[in-house]
């Protein structure tokens, strides 16, 4: 029996200061199941993850908050403690160091902190950890590239939007520049294209 | 003897050298003559803790720690669970580190006030940091560590932890290492789920066995409910009061002079292959790649092993996958070659070697079974003889002889798996030079053979129906039995000594330690005399 009242309170409390904290939680796919949530954290500044927005799948076991929530990155991320294959996370508070007095928000903030301060000695992804330790430059470049490629909200599905507008008969160059100017907002771009 | 190289340390690292027990209830004076110059010994003692005395035994240890450190029972228990019920370790840490760090490490918090007065009157309201609800102070509990949560949350947490089988439940606050007071846990849980509270209480009681390196449950099946405590070396054989004999180290049947590892491997091997060995030789061939035995389940002579290696069924040699019904591409084996023959012979030889040891092992195991029945009949024979009109009234020598027969039969039985491993390549490849191995094997087999001969002779005499004998014949029999008893016992002792000193010791193989020989067999334990389980002596 999931503590529904606590989860509801947590959601409200977490989303109150999203702008400052950089983390937010919503129901998964806009559904109504409180045990399936979707978290978002913004990449911390001065890290290769800066500018990225990372989606995290959250599943609450029936024993929550007495058992830790299950969290997994949906957005692909290049990080020693996060699997580059499936987004599994190696973080103590999500395992044996969980305490019922912690919240989803604190867990997400810890994930954010993990992005800033990787722990390559306790890796989830051995390949990434090796690279982090032996070839730091390549690691930084790869992490930055992955952030650009997978975690840029504006770039999500941009090709699809371009294709759609091109199919409507607009020249590709114009479509790209217009989309860029409106930060990828498809409707706004269409409006601009039509009025020009 | 260089202990450090050979014996692995147990928890304390203070023990070295072979273990030896002076707990020989059934040994006779002969023993004094047999074990000349005992090598350094650790005193290993064992005792039974029955289900009923478990609580008392635990209480005694708790009392010790409570009075030394001036703490309550819950705190003492937490501390002891952390130190795996090793009182000595608690004391050592106490002396080395002092009270505070000792408690802190184990998650024990000593607090002077647990009252909620500071929070104001009974109508005061607090916010629980787990459910985020406002609750009356009366419905909240503060642990020794000072963290306060509502009773509902505590209870739910305890229930989940207990269902997970946890014995030490820590405070719910972040990064708080403190262990919750088990009295509070039981009180809160029993309000909601009395059965679970009882289970928790049982957990705590059983922790004395489960979290204790010196105590193990008797592995008898069905379980007799007893636990065995051994102080000293873990490599020690005991007989529980339920009659079950076992090795305290691995909880399997008493198997000396085989080491625990050898015995495990042997059981596995026999389980895999026993009785089937003949069939295996006739019907299977080893895969040339993974060496696993492959059975041909039909089709042509090109066989594919599970490891994906193809090979020719006729010669057992590896080959490609391409073939017709009658030929395999690029492979012929109809002409005789020495090399292939050698290969085949090596496999056959390995199997034959195993068969040799296995057959003899089984023969002694069978004899042991029969002699066990014989042993049961002996009492009947004795009472018949005692009722006879004769001057001879003392027949204890028959019992002694019979016991010695069983004992040495066991030793013989286990020397075969031992020899299989010590002189084979599986565990000790290249540990001895071929010449060294040959000499040692020779000596060992000589000893084994002498023991075997004398055990068979003893068996023959013990089997005699002496109640039909006249006095003279009985005296003659007695002489033989007593003499053979002595001889067999001597050979057993020598055998153990030879195995320990000449076979295992020089290999510097710390894992292969064997339980010491005692003429009476595994140390038979007695019913605990008082409720005390900590006296160490049986």
From TrEMBL, chain A:
<feature type="active site" description="Glycyl thioester intermediate">
    <location>
        <position position="90"/>
    </location>
</feature>
<dbReference type="GO" id="GO:0061631">
    <property type="term" value="F:ubiquitin conjugating enzyme activity"/>
</dbReference>
<keyword id="KW-0833">Ubl conjugation pathway</keyword>
<dbReference type="InterPro" id="IPR015940">
    <property type="entry name" value="UBA"/>
</dbReference>
<dbReference type="InterPro" id="IPR009060">
    <property type="entry name" value="UBA-like_sf"/>
</dbReference>
<dbReference type="InterPro" id="IPR023313">
    <property type="entry name" value="UBQ-conjugating_AS"/>
</dbReference>
<dbReference type="InterPro" id="IPR000608">
    <property type="entry name" value="UBC"/>
</dbReference>
<keyword id="KW-0547">Nucleotide-binding</keyword>
<protein>
    <recommendedName>
        <fullName>E2 ubiquitin-conjugating enzyme</fullName>
        <ecNumber>2.3.2.23</ecNumber>
    </recommendedName>
</protein>
<feature type="domain" description="UBC core">
    <location>
        <begin position="2"/>
        <end position="152"/>
    </location>
</feature>
<dbReference type="Pfam" id="PF00179">
    <property type="entry name" value="UQ_con"/>
</dbReference>
<dbReference type="GO" id="GO:0005524">
    <property type="term" value="F:ATP binding"/>
</dbReference>
<dbReference type="Pfam" id="PF00627">
    <property type="entry name" value="UBA"/>
</dbReference>
<dbReference type="InterPro" id="IPR016135">
    <property type="entry name" value="UBQ-conjugating_enzyme/RWD"/>
</dbReference>
<dbReference type="InterPro" id="IPR041974">
    <property type="entry name" value="UBC27_UBA"/>
</dbReference>
<comment type="similarity">
    <text>Belongs to the ubiquitin-conjugating enzyme family.</text>
</comment>
<keyword id="KW-0067">ATP-binding</keyword>
<feature type="domain" description="UBA">
    <location>
        <begin position="157"/>
        <end position="196"/>
    </location>
</feature>
<keyword id="KW-0808">Transferase</keyword>
From TrEMBL, chain B:
<dbReference type="InterPro" id="IPR031127">
    <property type="entry name" value="E3_UB_ligase_RBR"/>
</dbReference>
<feature type="domain" description="RING-type">
    <location>
        <begin position="128"/>
        <end position="171"/>
    </location>
</feature>
<dbReference type="GO" id="GO:0008270">
    <property type="term" value="F:zinc ion binding"/>
</dbReference>
<protein>
    <recommendedName>
        <fullName>RBR-type E3 ubiquitin transferase</fullName>
        <ecNumber>2.3.2.31</ecNumber>
    </recommendedName>
</protein>
<dbReference type="Pfam" id="PF19422">
    <property type="entry name" value="Ariadne"/>
</dbReference>
<dbReference type="InterPro" id="IPR013083">
    <property type="entry name" value="Znf_RING/FYVE/PHD"/>
</dbReference>
<dbReference type="GO" id="GO:0061630">
    <property type="term" value="F:ubiquitin protein ligase activity"/>
</dbReference>
<keyword id="KW-0863">Zinc-finger</keyword>
<feature type="region of interest" description="Disordered">
    <location>
        <begin position="1"/>
        <end position="24"/>
    </location>
</feature>
<feature type="compositionally biased region" description="Acidic residues">
    <location>
        <begin position="1"/>
        <end position="13"/>
    </location>
</feature>
<dbReference type="Pfam" id="PF22605">
    <property type="entry name" value="IBR_2"/>
</dbReference>
<keyword id="KW-0833">Ubl conjugation pathway</keyword>
<keyword id="KW-0479">Metal-binding</keyword>
<dbReference type="InterPro" id="IPR045840">
    <property type="entry name" value="Ariadne"/>
</dbReference>
<dbReference type="Pfam" id="PF21235">
    <property type="entry name" value="UBA_ARI1"/>
</dbReference>
<keyword id="KW-0862">Zinc</keyword>
<feature type="domain" description="RING-type">
    <location>
        <begin position="124"/>
        <end position="337"/>
    </location>
</feature>
<keyword id="KW-0677">Repeat</keyword>
<comment type="function">
    <text>Might act as an E3 ubiquitin-protein ligase, or as part of E3 complex, which accepts ubiquitin from specific E2 ubiquitin-conjugating enzymes and then transfers it to substrates.</text>
</comment>
<comment type="similarity">
    <text>Belongs to the RBR family. Ariadne subfamily.</text>
</comment>
<keyword id="KW-0808">Transferase</keyword>
<dbReference type="Pfam" id="PF01485">
    <property type="entry name" value="IBR"/>
</dbReference>
